[in-house]
Amino acid sequence: MFTGIVQALGTISQLDRRGEDIRLRVDAGRLDMSDVALGDSISTNGVCLTVVEFGTDYYCADVSAETIRYSGFAHYGNGSSVNLEKAMRPTDRFGGHIVSGHVDGVGAVSAINKHADYVEIWIKAPAELARYIAHKGSITVDGVSLTVNKVNGAEFMLWIIPHTLQETVIGTYQNGTQVNLEVDVVARYLERLMLGDQAAEPKAGNIDMAFLAENGFLRK
Question: I need a labelling partner for 172 at 20 to 30 A (CA). Which of 23, 158, 202, 205 fits?
Answer without folding.
Answer: 23
